[in-house]
Amino acid sequence: MQTSTQHKTALGHLRILDLTRVLAGPWCSQNLADLGAEVIKVERPDSGDDTRSWGPPYLQDAAGNSTGEAAYYLAANRGKQAITVDISTSQGQSIIRELVKQSDVLLENYKVGQLAKYGLDYDALIQIKPDLVYCSITGFGQDGPYAHRSGYDFIIQGMGGLMSLTGERDDLAGGGPQKAGVAITDLMTGMYATIAVLAALTHRDKTGEGQYIDMGLLDVQVAMLANMGSNYLTSGNIPKRWGNAHQNIVPYQTFATADGHIIVAAGNDAQYRKFVQIGERAELADDPRFLSNPLRVQHRDILVPMLADMVKRKTKNEWISALELAAVPCGPINNLEEVFNDPQVRARCMQIELDHPKAGIVPLVASPMKLSKTPVEYRQAPPLLSQHTEQCLRDLLHFDDEKIAQLKLDGII
């Protein structure tokens, strides 16, 4: 079992007040927690983060009984302290303000203008904490004609162009737009927000100034179009879906083997020749229609079916072994059982286990950040709802037992 170790952390001097829920915001705050920051996750009393109930599957204890902790929630909330506060009440708002005074960063993903009703917007909070870094995450940003719309990853993938690029070609069976298998826009927003927060903190440390960060999912999705966005802006041509094929290179796609699928990425003529030789179709290397990559692209509809038939004659492992030996870029398409049993994934320690108060242990996916001097720290499992409320109020705000009991009775915490 991997547990927290004592070492210097990169962000151990920071406290993050996290008013976010679901994925984009919690992904950002989990990054910061992994790097050593103290993260206080603020949730609604009774129900908490929406993702706590987004199951099954739920974490099970040693006897196989459900703990009620949804796997979705567990994916994005390790290393945090969890408190519950009803911020719609004046007493709850007062608690948040007192915590802000002792925090470096506030993260939130409420609808545009919603926190202003509670006096918890940036303009209000910098009156009590001038150097606060305040990061808002919304679907469409704080301005523009869509600012007040709710933003969901799936919708943003469609609106932001990703689904126009993802999926099988329209002229083939199963063609049409397809979303990514994970909420990639949420995750990338969390990553961009992490970078923005760290940049703002660097500026604060140099100048003493806090600042406001406006993160919009649609902005992120447009930014991450990367070369495809640049291709369009440069040429004016609208890119099409190519499924698992490449529009400029052949063969550079998936193929079905006798017992699974592989990816072959033959980026030059020599690699293509080795590929067909291994497949016992060496004549395809000398066919005048396929002598060069431009010719193979031109005649892809003739060549690819022949390659597909060739690949089906061997198993996935037979192909991978032979192609790797010949230095032809290739790889399997693994299911998640195969991923977590992969020797490279295991060597890189990409699965961890942390102590959990209900389940005994909880298995989690590790952070990919490998820092030599300030490695990531896995201090605790994703917290139970309100697990740290009393401790936080006592240690940071110096509330006594009587005051805490009254706040509970009043439904404030």
UniProtKB/TrEMBL annotation:
The keyword Transferase applies. Gene3D superfamilies: Crotonobetainyl-coa:carnitine coa-transferase, domain 1 (3.40.50.10540), formyl-coa transferase, domain 3 (3.30.1540.10). InterPro entries: CoA-transferase_III_domain, CoA-Trfase_fam_III, CoA-Trfase_III_dom3_sf, CoA-Trfase_III_dom_1_sf. It comes from the Bacteria. The keyword Zinc-finger does not apply. Keywords: Transferase. GO terms for molecular function: transferase activity. This is CoA transferase.
